[in-house]
Structure prediction request, 539 residues.
Amino acid sequence: FANLGVPRYLCIMFLRKKPNKSGSTSVQVIVKTKNRKQRVVKTIGSSRDTDEIERLMAEGRKYISDQNGPLFPDIDEDENAVDAFVGSLTNSQIKVVGPELIFGRLYDYIGFNSIPSEMFRHMAICRLFNPGSKLKTVDYLERYLHVSYDISKIYRFLDNLCYRKDTKLAADKGRKESGTDYKRLVEQISFDHTKKVVGGNISVCFYDMTTLYFEAADEDDLRKAGFSKDGKHSNPQIFLGLLVASGGNPIGYEIYEGNIYEGNTIVPLVKALAERFGFGKPVVVADSGLLSKKNIEALTSDGYEYILGARPKSESDDMKDRILSLDLKYGDIKEVDKGNGVRLILSSSEKRAHKDKRMREKGLARLQKKVKSGKLTKQNINNRGYNKYLRLDGTVDVSIDMAKFEADAVWDGIKGYVTNTRLTPEEVIDSYGNLWFIERAFRFNKFDLAVRPIYHRLRNRIEGHICICFTAYTILLELERILKAAKSDITIHRAQELAKNMYAISYIHARSKQAVERILGMDEEQRKLYDLIDMATQS
Prediction:
């Protein structure tokens, strides 16, 4: 420490595993000073053997322990003096530092530290381990991180977080321009990181939409009642459209009115993001909800290749006859030429057949229950979903057409994909199968980051909330990538728990009278997580 010219109590000493060009890994002891400068204090050794590296790590931890000495070096080793000092400590001197050590490092590594707001940093990181309302966030920051924000200041910040000059809603009148559109900045940082992760070439992108509901019952220009994918049909909602690259790595997003037809969103968003980021024209992959003649024409006219989920049962009678004439067996993959360079790829699987049959039987059971109760409404008298099995005799006699139900069994297990690419049928199916990346992205946001329900009412605050969650998702995905690359047995959920229980203590040094903050000792699992994040963010 004397060689660093910095008092020991202003330094943090830790281990680093550094990959070498030769294929070996060096275990080094690093000292980081309060001004963030780092220096190699000692190289413990290097090896290619995993067991030997773990032995070197253990030796390094012992070295650090020997160098650091007691936690409070200014206190004499007299037992009474130590007891008196510890007894003088209060809860206000202890704070949680794990989120900053883990998620804060990732926040900086991705590039979000270029965002000119400490408040945004705190809100995004807090979302990763303590998601909730803004009031709960303010309370947590105050209680555990000793960071104080007035809730009104949070709301004012959200008012200008995603300011755009083209906003014309009445709720935005009088709002001052902040000078920075954080949404565009966050998307740019996320996209730059995505390019680095996927190797610089965005050759394929995945698009899907989900609904986010609100607890408040009133509607406005943005929050509208519509078909809810969360089953909250009585709650107003918005649509969130998300575009990602392979692995679920984010490209960009947009929010839409809660009653919009989702098929109208894919082409404008893909074109806008491609123009902004200049990633050319990747293959666009989306599910059958985005399948429409208008979308296909728009993608084709702009030179995009696509893979969209198809609905074989909704094809023309002539096409359905051609599909059934293929006599697909379980495991078969075949294609039908639709003309103009468009192909319909078809596959059949036993697993899907069982699922399709089970869903038909569940739909039939619900209809039978409604028919028996006599409580059918006008909503049931249509041809949507399983209501197509209803048969009307005269004006009052409603029954179920079992012949139509049984006839649908021929479609069990058949899945279709529409594409204008030159990929083989197997490559088309594999590419479409990667849509689970975006399904997982929605799952992360809804459950891990609690993006909904949304408690805000004004559009600008809603946009700010989504922007913060998008930032947190990018960090969470990078954490998962690092853990998987290291083949660690630590899951992202376990990492969140470990980070919540890393603490530091602050006190006044008895001799220097300077404020000192010391990170308390980590357990083996916490140290393992810390070392993984440190090694990944140093590379």
Observations:
- The first helix runs from residue 50 to 68.
- Confidence is low (pLDDT under 50) at residues 1-10, 71-77, 165-179.
- The CA atoms of residues 202 and 279 lie 6 Å apart.
